[in-house]
Design a protein that fits this description.
CATH architecture of the largest domain: 8 Propeller
CATH topology of the largest domain: Methanol Dehydrogenase, Chain A
Oligomer: single chain
CATH superfamily of the largest domain: Quinoprotein alcohol dehydrogenase-like superfamily
Radius of gyration: 30 Å
Number of strands: 47
CATH class of the largest domain: Mainly Beta
Shape: elongated
Number of helices: 2
Length: 616
Amino acid sequence: MGKILFPVLVLALFLLVSIPAAAVGTEAPPIASGVLGSEISRGLASSPYPVYGLDPHHTNRSAYTGPTTLPEVDWTATTPGSGAEMPLSIGSDGILYLGLRNGEEGLHAFNTDGTLKWSWTRPVMQGVSGTAAIVEDYLYINFGTHWPPADYGMVKLSQTDGAEVWTVSTSESAYMSSPAVDQSGNVYFGAYDDKLRSVAADGSLNWTYSAGEIIFCSPAIGDDGTIYVGNDSLGAIALNSDGSVKWTTALPDRPIYGPNILGNGNIVYRSQDGTTTALNDSGVSQWSRVFSGGYATGAVAADGTTLYVKTGSYSDRYLTALDASGTTVWEFSLGTALDDAPVVGSDGTIYVSHGASVSAINPDGTESWTLSLDLGEADHSYSTNWPVIGGDGVLYILLNDSWDYGMSSAVKIVRLYAEPPSAVTVTIDAPDDEVLEDSDFTVNVNISEVADFDACNYDVAFDATVIRLDDVTSGLIDSTAIPVDIYNELAAGTYRIIQNVPGLTGVTGSGYLAVLHFHVLGSEGDSSAITLSNGMLSNNQAVEITATWVGDTVSVTSVVPGDANGDGAVNALDITKVERIIAGLDAETPGADANSDGNVNALDITKVERIIAGLD
């Protein structure tokens, strides 16, 4: 396995994403609002993977980092059936939901430790092949495959126990298509009876669109509420939220999986013949690429336009990165691999299945790590598919029997875990003691251990009547200087600082980003907070490094602690002065109380000595 590079000009962008705390062990992962956030994801549960494609745009881009180092197998759960053809979904409480087509066919809920919580099935249902959509305390799932006799439709279930709330029946299978949910809570699903249905949360039918051909495609939903699906006869189909046709565009072959909606508004369809086509929001082709195979949904990078897709045949598969024009940026050889979607972590890492392994690929196409999950069973050869990020450091992967895509042997769910790296902290390191009137002092902008740091911007704010910023000079991480490119006064007492490490190698270590040089304007008793805000750290892959930004406070005094003789400096003369005051030979001075405890005694002698030695 390895990467094949293609010439490309890469534009570095900062990713504005906030990442919650890490999951630990087998506990439920923390709740996330999703990378799209705001309106478009509003109808879905706040969870690591609430719907096919992770969000209505099918970005497969997570709000979590996934395992950043080689993970270990936390647990393996053997499911009661076989034939997992779509990814599992995850509730806000960490419960997993997986549809199975054979064996104990139906939808199965698994606890966070991998034990079975409940199973839902129906007589002559012929299984579940899609991904459950999670909304509040409920699940929506299509059921019934294309083998008659069977029971077909879409059902609403309670997350608590799998109890049915209502069912919408169809005349033919709802095979392959997973439900989508809009911001108003309406549910959309396709079926073999050539129809796309819109169903309200109470189970009433909003409308039905007849496409004239089977709809495998899981619907994607645009920011404006446009529903994107596809089929063999019409190709790409865009519907308004009332079910009326917006446009259709012919494709070379039928789309099986749902399209991706990119950040530039393009909709990318992948046809069964290996063609990948990008259409604008009017249905006009922007670019088209023909590959020797691969038609599963892709994953969208943090820049919103780079698309990661599996290409090639089953025995010669690649992970391919395509830029906004459809040009190949790089390819990573996977060898044998099923046709499923990769998933992208919040740090830009791409997780992809192949053979009996799963790999983490860096945004530049290089390999971060690969873990083999071969179980060593003599009568079965397992293949991985459908990776899903379950929280910081957590990755779920499915194991299917290779020879028949998991139709005969029990599917296994594997939970992988690697301890997430410690959170980066950026802090203002103000002087511990009060600062003297009309004096100069410096403040370091410290940074804890950070990996592959390349650039940053942040705002520094303070009370401009108390202190004045005169200069900002370079910092140091490890042994690498962190130059200050620009600092600019946005308003009185607020400056924006921009820094960049030359080149793209980045720097790893801890130290300080910059030194702030202040002058004191205030008087005795004045104080000023020095705060950090609007901070952004970028690594050398143009991906945000999540950080906590912490300020500090300085207070003004007319007395320098330890300056017992009042000459403005702390030196050996002050030791003698403190001793004379303790002995009653001289009157007490404010600076003689070096430790500020209200008394002048032997403790202040030691304090002055420590100040002179640079220890305090």
